[in-house]
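Final report, section 2: Outcomes. Of the targets proposed, Phage tail protein is the one most frequently requested by collaborating groups, and we therefore present its record in full.
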Amino acid sequence: MKETFLVKHAVGGRAFIDTSKQSVPYTWEQQGEQWLFRVQIDQPERIAELLKWKEELNVFVFQEFENEPTRKLWFYVGDDAVQFADEKGELTIVATSHISYIPDQFSVK
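The predicted structure is given below as tokens.
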């Protein structure tokens, strides 16, 4: 499986992190009813613009399988859910809900 991690501004659609364009170490896991994302960023100045919009972010994970359609997971980030630890170079994002869908199976009629 190939996975793409994307952090976007919810309104403008601007991408702050897109692992399909630049490799960025990250992990994510479900913890109870939340999802915790940890992103290693060794250049804090790169994250400054993202932090300006931290109350308006969405996180996406695209999972591409060899013999199955791509699955997209869309995570909603809550208030006070984005933190950056300068000393560790780690961005932490907590999502409180998500939807999972297969674009090939989604249509508007």
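The chain has one domain: 2-105.
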